[in-house]
Amino acid sequence: MNLMNNVESDEIAKLKDVADEIKKSGKIAIFAHQNPDGDAYASSVGLGMALRKNGYEVSFYLGSSKQDFSPIIGMHEAFEENTSPIPEGTTALCVDCASRDYAANNEMFDKCERIIVVDHHATNTFYGDVNYVDSSAAACAEISYFLIKAMGYEITEDIAYALYLGLVTDTGSFQYSNTTIRTHYVAGVLSTIRRDFHKLHDELKYISMDTFLALSEAMNNTDFLFGGKLGIMSLTKEDENYWNSHVDTDGFVDHVRDIYGIRLAVFTKEIEENVHKVSMRAMDEVMNVSDFAARQGGGGHPKAAGFTFNGDIEGLHMMLAEYYEEEWTE
Ligand SMILES: [Mn+2]
Predict the structure, then answer these.
(1) Residue 216 C-alpha to ligand 1 middle, in angstroms?
(2) Are residues 235 and 158 in the same domain?
(3) Is the same domain home to 189 and 242?
């Protein structure tokens, strides 16, 4: 399998410099984007475990997330708010985060001796002293696998499980267009280290009864425009179940994305009065949603991006319809 041997050696060669930079410091503080998702956690925890196992002093400054992945990948401590001061001579390793502003606890960056950025967002602003950005990687966890190998460290069973979480969450279980031979290669190698990834898939699929009820409300609140090509699903303060208890709305947008004929799928949720979090998915070969999201102060990837909107739900729907009309129709 020469092709596969090349994948491994090519990536390791590309990452050699950043691997050497990380190894210069014995103290590493790990950062990721705000409200970390599966990939941000996977990359942080995967790299953190590898560094710790090889004698580094590792601390996590990930901030809180609506989703807690610690029941799946362990490392509870990485998921907790960390207020301890940064020791002198610490290097910040910031993963899966496109800009300095978007990093959780970024005020701590100034206390670090330098910042090393490892990311896969095309919108990355190169805010580190050392930057490794590969937007062809499906997940930051994909880069993290090769980075650990480039440092010469072993991928243990725990690390394999963590990294696999990042691959699965950022590729929609290897279904999105960002999935490449390299993604499958990493998943394949990880599968030789762990044999129980089916459990991780199950864990990610479970939803609570409250989430189920909120989803049914969101489905009722879905508007279809432009002959069913633009679908907007919304939850607002009016929706009883959404506000009742712990509801995980991650993945709601996929129910719109999955409808035959949809080109642009949107999910909006009112996080506080007249403040809406907007997730967009482009189901189109050429169209790109990250530019529009960036213009609204958000960001993301060409086919999956988001932003925060201030105003009422009617105004938000109007803006989305205008965007579709101006940029998605001839
Ligand atoms: Mn990611």
Answers:
(1) 28
(2) no
(3) no
